[in-house]
Amino acid sequence: MIPSVLPTYNRAPLSFVKGEGSWLLAEDGQRYLDLGSGIAVNALGHAHPALVQALTEQAAKLWHVSNVYTIPEQQRLADMLVDRTFADTVFFTNSGTETAELAIKMARKFHYEAGQPERTEIITFEGAFHGRSTGAIAAAGSEKMVKGFGPLMPGFRHLKWADHDAIRAAITTRTCAVMIEPIQGEGGIRVVPDQCLKGLRDLCDSTGTLLIFDEVQCGMGRTGRLFAHEWAGVSPDIMMVAKGIGGGFPLGAILATERAASGMTAGSHGSTYGGNPLGCAVGAKVTEIVSDPAFLAEVARKGALFRQGLESLVARHADVFDSVRGEGLMLGLKCKPAPADLVKVGYAAGILTVAAADNVLRLLPALNISDEDIAEALGRLDQAATALRASAA
To answer: Which CATH number do you get for residue 375?
Structure first.
């Protein structure tokens, strides 16, 4: 008999009733150190007082009016994002998947309005994850996401990750855009080197191709810059943002230059809930906090501290871990056993992590995690690795 909740998730046998900072409390009273942050969503941890206040104050005033009307909270957050990024304009969504859909539409509409309707093909990369809508899975193209779902949206060309020659050869007169994550999350915390992002920007400029960055997982301060591409000193034409921007409240956004967004006129796209007063009130508070240079400097410092500890962990457990990868507080442990095994033994050690492709264990703590909790995390990861070795002996 099918459960009342559609069984599309392979859920862990855990249920949480309360969260505070980097910690979660389960129904049985057990405390867990959360290094997953709802998969990079809870950027400021659980029940951050400033976010609770922003949400409750807005909830007492106005929840929803629809985009038929001007929404002051939405305008405020858009202005903040434009002021702090490359973008000239912002469209708000509820999720990362929705940002992928609009990025695809915006890029194709740009070329259509420019008199090049044949330019519809978007180049994407092996290991990518852009969401689970039909358009997003077509963009990623991996068998596990597309198998059984019938005809897919056409117009995507999938290339191997980091194959520069293949990218140059793939761009033709039919190419609309290149869509890439500066750091792949689901793909295994794989960082695109700065020089590669610079080369990609130059290639797109020389061929009239739009450049789309998917910063749904690696953005909003996670690497020690507001957005990961800033480390390379380049900017995209279109950028996908979600997860951390709402700090746990469903919120996403497409950021774009005026040129790239020029085809999106009244009626060309819409969202019932996107940019609602509740989401934007919380998003504005998150943006205010994480865009502070002092806060970002702390993320970078804590990322270096955590990474140093992880390197020592790898050295002590060379039969379990291979290496550390990532930037800031978007880190991964390349594992020798299946990372899912480490996730499971971590439950007994009271620590929550997230598995990814390429045999990587993702570590995505709250950006305001304390030094003490980083030390605690390292101790519990050590405990989990020791338990895994013992079980395999």
So the answer is: 3.90.1150.10
